[in-house]
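Record filed below.
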Amino acid sequence: MAETSNDTPWTVMRLLEWTTDFFRKKGSESPRLDAEILLAHARGCQRIELYTSFDKVPEEEQRVAFRELVRRRGEGAPVAQLVGYREFYSISIRVDENVLVPRPETEHLVIEAIDQIKGRLSDRPSPTVLDIGTGSGAIAVAIAKSLPKTQVTAVDISLTALDIAKWNVENLKLFDRVTLLQSDLFDGLDPGQTFDVICSNPPYISQSEYDELPTTVREFEPRGALLSGPDGTEIIARLLNDSVQRLNDGGQLIIELSPMIAGVCKTLAERNGGYKEIHLIKDLAGHERILSMQKA
């Protein structure tokens, strides 16, 4: 990206057009959006402000910052890591290389949890929720922000992930309703502690799937938050077995999973014997993404 070409200045519009084409050739699924987010970040403005600035030439310092962002994105770094945040359930969530970038598909898990609490569990004065493998805390804060009477416990085995989650909890002023705890699934919780809803976006990628992931995921996001084991069902099986005794009567277990293992996981839940009303929920692409069930 040279400073000029045929004496044509690098306006906002020209930068966006060049970068969009560059990202498209690199295989980005959203090249224009990527370009806009990175340029807005380099200019220190809102993305919508770019649309009234197409003819403006960014300052030298902004162009230097933008070129570096474009270079790193071209190498595969996720946009969310480059700018330090990701929009999730209409909330700005801070992220870095220690946590998964929140995906739109995970919003279906949040919606299911909220629907259960507002609907079937609405008689509980202060519903309790456990978010297992919280990472950035996206699920926990989205539920807590949407349901002011809810108390959320969010656990993760990674202390570096919990540091990011703590930032998000404090930034949203939810520290009085979201408790963070280091724990491998239930191991760090009090033995008798139970919940109305347990939800989790656990590692569910099999080794063969992991090897085929895009570079932007495989090389830039934490392996431990993605890879479950040879089959992809290993951690989900643990969740299904251990959650029964951690749910209050009539409590709900909600798990995000890969469409490739959805049928297998539903069968595991049915064979467990501790659940009823077991059903799969599809994402916007029509893929079975969420497994939800009630304690029998």
Remarks:
- The two ends are 61 Å apart (CA to CA).
- Residues 60-74 form the longest helix (15 residues).
- The first strand starts at residue 85 and ends at 88.
- The chain has a mean pLDDT of 95.
